Each structure stands twice: as structure tokens, then as C-alpha cells.
Amino acid sequence: MGADPGCELCVSSGPDEWVLSYSDADPASERTRETLLTVGNGYFATRGAAPEATADESHYPGTYAAGLYNRLTSQVDGQTREDESIVNLPNWLPLTFRSLGGEWLVPEAFERVHEHLVLDMRRGLLTRELLVADRNGRRTRLRQRRLVSMAAPHLGALETRIVLENWSGRIEIRSALDGRVSNGNVSSFGALAAQHLTVTETGCDGRDLVWLVAETSSSKQRVAEVARTLVYQGGHEVRADRRTVSEAGLIGQELEIDVGQGEDVVIDKAVALFTSRDRAIAEPLVAAREEITDASKFEDLLLAHSAAWDRLWQRFHVGLDDGDGSRLPVHVHVFHLLQALSPHTADLDAGVPAPGLHGESYRGHIFWDELFVFPFLNFRLPELTRALLRYRHRRLPQARRRAAALGMKGALFPWESGSDGREETPRASWNPHAGRWRQDYSSRQYHVNLAVAYNVWHYWQTTADFGFLAAYGAELLFETGRFAASLATYDPNDDRYDIRGVMGPDEFHDGYPDRPGQGIDNSAYVNIMTAWTLARARDAHELIGKHHGDEMWQGLRLSDAELQKWDHISRRLRVCFLPNGLIEQFEGYGRLAERDWDEFKRQHGDLKTLGLVLEAENDSPNRYQASKQADVLMLLYLFTAEELTALVRQLNYPFDPAIIPQMIDYYMRRTSHGSSLSRVAHAWVLSRTDRSRSWEMLRAALNSDIADREGGSTSEGIHLGAMAGSLDILQRGYTGLDTREDMLWLNPMLPDELRSLDLDIRYRGQWINLRVDPTKLTLHAHPGGAAPPSKVTIRERVYDLAPGATIEVPRNG
Ligand code: BGC
């Protein structure tokens, strides 16, 4: 499809760093586009599917509400299994037209002469221009604009302008709510039960409203959608002839209207969505009817929505000059992050879903990915990270149950979490390369606990929110610390503690070759992070002791014996080393077989699916020195080289940081990047040793979803952790920004390709503009804010940054 002179989007849009634009027909990638063209507001989101589309090979309309899950039982491979999934909600988009008595606009009945889709990220507006011809050569142009309101979180709206280009006549318009949906976005879940919803009620008010209520089968959540459809002709609202259409699971209206050639008709459809999880409502349908009755028409909704986006963009401004087109992917990442997690999410009980609210991959579960997401949010929307940490805190009782079931103390958060915080990791997952189910032992990734602890501490360091630390954070640190301490076993022979039977971040190793599935021992990542966590738990204990009297402890106070034990463990955990002195990923990694991975790559295209391919060949990644994703190197993602050195030395091992470049090289050569998080971690790690390569990897991470580099998986949702993590490389990786010891630290090292960087961050209540250009680093504290001067360390020199003050430091000074 070429440019079309009648298409407003072709005429007005050139390359723009705020706009995702598609004007070529490509059925193979339409599902991926639908993910990237999702509009949402952190409360709910709707994929960018066409309003006339139903789910088929190349389309998948999907709408998801944050935190709304349901559990279904399936029979697979002779086994009964239960899976909890985020639920695909009734489709509110359906809108189509026909000439009276003709064929409805569906993909098969019309020729798509021209189609152009533009997502304007500055305003959160998806615009579609479509020129179709029917079998009689009648050409009709549709201009559709769509939003999910960032100003009013329960509202979505779709405006359709219809112009009959070379004909005139009476047309029918059908606007509906379609509850005949199931979960079908992920092909590898094809064998699993998918029908989560039953439509329990439909209705209409005889004027312009129709509604549909559905209920999930086991979580018994009610979802109500009410749609209002108005028609305008010549700028005036008209009362078209209307009839209600009602089929099983679907309710809508058909409107009839006479239209002259070239004249335009505007259909203004708005929907209100409420669920029984919402607060401050009596009942979802009542709330939705009230909301839609008060809703303004599209243009006014758009004004309020754009203003809300404008405010968000001011907070989330990331300016960069690379001369290489990176601004567009940066905007895409910020935009989708905020559509999955926004200020509206802070009011919910929801976590950080791995695929955003953009698809059904990983069943919308919550993993450790928040480790990559929080740093960017902490500096801009700490009220949101606080709420996301409270999602964890509310699930402590489940986490305690899980630890107890393993015979441990404290609390163990699940590797995959959904509604109530029980372990949701499937026991078997489909291997498409082998055409069979494989056992999945990833629930041994207890390190998710360490991520929660890390996030608590960094939230506290960035915000100084002592109220949170005392009321929730400390308990999270103590309970995860307690679990880690009970997992560690003491070896009196060399006065060391071991942690056995776990999995590190690298999912290729769920055990040793002779005992797969039983976990590996002494993961360097797990043990070093555990030492750090126990030390921070002790710090939190001391801090609270200092600020609070005895009566404030509410049963949290730790005994001296426990504190001493934690201290001992945090100094005596075992870390293994390779003969060349490098930290060993886990005990015995160095004894595993080596293989020529370049040769493997030549045979199989890439290494991403290395684990699944090996299994299909009846081999196992457990046998090899290969990692799915950054594992040991995650330590350098989370800690500076100085901190890591101090941590290893605190464990009483000699460690020379000069060995770090060799360590990076060793593990990078063995990493397949089978997770999108891996490139983020590696780009970060390289930012200190090989900036040009780091930039190359960051560019790959920034373009990973846009170019669908993750093997087609973008059609099933975004990679939220990688999106936020890549922004954080710009924010913290290249500026050396860090918060520790009650100070802000900076040490900028931009890659040569990145000429300047300009960001606003909020540190302990103070907004600070941070700008790095080739000659200097400039910090400017916003004059507002009564915060005490922030302490900032820039290359070992400490500055006081008072409100309104500016600090300028030459880059090589
Ligand atoms: C990665 C995990 C990650 C999950 C969800 C997996 O492929 O190995 O580290 O948490 O995807 O993003």
C-alpha cells in the first residue's frame, strides 16, 4: 500500500519521534502491531486491534484490567493442572458499517485499499485511516480515533468518521459489546482451558446505552461494561433509527442513517468499565452506568486525557541526543511502561505483570521483573512503587505458608504470582521444538525474595519514606532475611554456610546433569545477594530501633541471637571460584562441558532457544557452561564494582576488581540472551568497560519489541522489565546515579554515540534536573520543595544541593 492523498495521516505525518506509524499491509505482523498499538492507563488496556476484527490468525482483540485473574483447570498429557491467568475481558471495540442490506465491513468482504495507523504517544491517541472498497467498487473512508483515558481511568472511547467517497445512500452502523471472548493470545497455551468468563447480563436503556456484565468462573469477579453510541451529522447530534441486537454473549445497537456522497457522519462510542475489585462503588454495573452518563463527548475526553498525558510526560521526560533515532524507542518504552503502570495503578492491589497489560504471555504473572522496573519509577512516581511493594506486603501470609511448607522460617514469595500470592509457576511448560511438555522447575528461583528486599531498600534510599520502612519495608526485609537464613546450612569444617537446591536467574540450570530439577548449589548471585539482604535487614532493624520506642515494634523486634546469626551468615556464605580466579556461577559450573556456541548458532540461527533445542535433541542445558541470561553479571547490574568487591571481601574472600573485565567477557561468551532482560543487564555491565558495545546492546534492547526481536513473542505482550530496564540504563547506567548511604551519587560516563542526556528525577522529595553533555554535568534543584539540601557525591566530592541551586562539574574535571 502506498501513500494515499486522501489520507490525513499520509498528508500530515512525517518521521516523528513521538509517533509509531504503520501504513503497509503485513498480516504476519499484525498481532505484534496490535501489542505495540495498545492504549491503556494502568487500570485497563486494550490492544490495538481493528474494531471490526475478531480473533483469528492475524488479529487478537484483547482488553485486560490490572490484577484481574481467574483460575481454570485443564487436562493435559494425562495430568490435571490448574492455571491462573489474567483475563481477556469483553471486547468493547466492535464497530462496523454496511450499506443498507449489504455486507458488513469484515476483512473478507472488503478490499483494504489503504490503511494507516498512527499512535501519537504524546497524547495517547491511536488514529486509523482506512479506505475500503466493496465488491461493487463503492469506496468508503473511515477515520477512527481511540483512547483509554489517562484522566478518567474507567473510560475508553472510539470515534469513527465515515465518508462515502463515490456513493451515497442509507447505511447501517453496528456498535456492540462482545462477551464471546476467551484467552487465546498465546499459541503454546493452546491445550489449556481458556474460557474464563460467562456473560450474566446484557441490557439497553432504549436510547443510546447498552451494557454487558460477565463473571469469571472461579475468582467470581464481575466485570461491567456500558457503551454509549452517539451519532453526529454536519456537526449536530442526530437521533438515528436504532434497534438493539442481542445474541448470546453480545449486545449492541444497529443505527440507520442516510448519508450523501462526501458528507461525513461521526459515530462517538464511549465505554465505562468497572469490576468488583474497584473501590468506592456499590456495584460495577451501577458505577459504569453513572460514569458513562456523566462522560463528555470524544473531543472533550481527548482534551482531559491529553492533559493527563502531558503531566506524565513532564515527569517522565528523557531527553537525549544520539543523532541515531533513539528518541522514538525511548518514548515507546516510557509510553508502554506508563500504560501498564500509572498513577491509577497506585490505587489498586496489583503488581508488575511481565507482559504489561498488552497480552497474555506468562499468563500476566508477576515475576522478579520489578527489579528492572522500580529504579525508573522510584525517581518519578514513588507513590506507585510504594503501592507495588504493598502488593508484596499484603501477600506475606501466603509467602509465610510457602516457606513453612518447605520447612523454612520467614516468607518465600512465589516465582510467579497472580491474585493472592500463591506460587503460580506451572509444573510443565510446552516445548515447541520438541513438540512435548517439559517439567518446569523454575519455582526454585527463590531469588525473587532477594529482589523484593533490594527494592524495599532502594525505595527507602530514594525517598527517605521512613513511614513505609517502619510499617511495611522492615517486615519484608526481616521475613525474606529469615527465609534466607533458614535456607543456609552450616558447614563446621570450614565455618561456611551453603545454600543448596536453588535456581539462579539463569534458567538453563535447574540442577546438575545427574540430578536435574533438584536445583544447583551455592549460586554466586543468590549467596552474595543474601549476604547483602541480611546486612540491610540488620540496618533496618537498627534504624527503627533508633527512631522508635519499644512500644512501636509491633512484634517485629529481632532477638539478639537472630541478629548475630544473620551477621555470621552474611560474613560466611560460600562463594565458589573458577581456577582462573573468576567468581563461579554456582558450585560445579566450571566442571560442566564446553561447547562451540558459534557453531551452534550457525546451525540453529541464534542461541535464544538453546535450552529448548537441546532438550528436543534429548540433551540438556544442565550439561553445559551456558547461561540463558545474565546471572553472575547481575551482581554488577545491582552493585557497583566497589560495592561488589566490598561484599565479596566481607565474605572473607580475596577479590581483585581488576578481574571484572575478564569475568564479563567469560560469562558474556556463554550467554544466549534467551530473556529480554539479559541484554539490559549486559548493556549496563558494559557501560563501565566497553561503552561502545554497551551502546550497541542498549540500542538492541531499545528496539527489541519494536522490531519484534524476541522471536514473535511481542504479539503476546510487551517485555515490560526490558522496556523499563533499558530506560534505567540511560538514567542510572550512563550517569552513575546511585542512592546509598543517604546520598545521591553520580559519575557520568556517556558512550561517545550519546552526545547529551537530560532528565528530571525526584530524590527525597526534591525534583532535580540532571544534564550531561560532552563538557559538563549540571544538576539543578527545582526551587520549590522544602526538602533539606540533598547530599550529592560526584567523583568523591560531596556537595549540598539546596532547592533552587545549581551545581556544574566539568566532565573531565
Ligand atoms: C526470564 C525471567 C523473567 C521472565 C518474565 C523469563 O524468560 O528468564 O527472568 O522473569 O521471563 O519476564
TrEMBL record:
Give the active-site positions: 507
What are the GO BP annotations of this UniProt entry? Answer: carbohydrate metabolic process
Q: Which InterPro entries match?
A: 6-hairpin_glycosidase_sf, 6hp_glycosidase-like_sf, Gal_mutarotase_sf_dom, GH65_N, Glyco_hydro_65_C, Glyco_hydro_65_M, Glyco_hydro_65_N, Malt_Pase/Glycosyl_Hdrlase
Spell out the Pfam families in the cross-references: Glyco_hydro_65C, Glyco_hydro_65m, Glyco_hydro_65N
Q: Which UniProt keywords apply?
A: Glycosidase, Glycosyltransferase, Hydrolase, Transferase
Annotated ranges, domain Glycoside hydrolase family 65 N-terminal: 22-277
Q: Where is the Glycoside hydrolase family 65 central catalytic domain?
A: 332-727
Look up keyword Transferase and say if it applies. Answer: yes
Molecular function in Gene Ontology: carbohydrate binding; glycosyltransferase activity; hydrolase activity, hydrolyzing O-glycosyl compounds
Sorted alphabetically, which Gene3D superfamilies does this protein's record hold? Answer: 1.50.10.10, Glycoside hydrolase, family 65, N-terminal domain, Maltose phosphorylase, domain 3
User: Among its keywords, does the record have Methyltransferase?
Assistant: no
Q: Where is the Glycoside hydrolase family 65 C-terminal domain?
A: 737-799
Q: Kindly list the positions annotated as binding substrate.
A: 368-369, 628-629
Q: Which family does it belong to?
A: Belongs to the glycosyl hydrolase 65 family.
Q: What is this protein called?
A: Trehalose and maltose hydrolase (Possible phosphorylase)
Q: What is the source species?
A: Micromonospora pattaloongensis
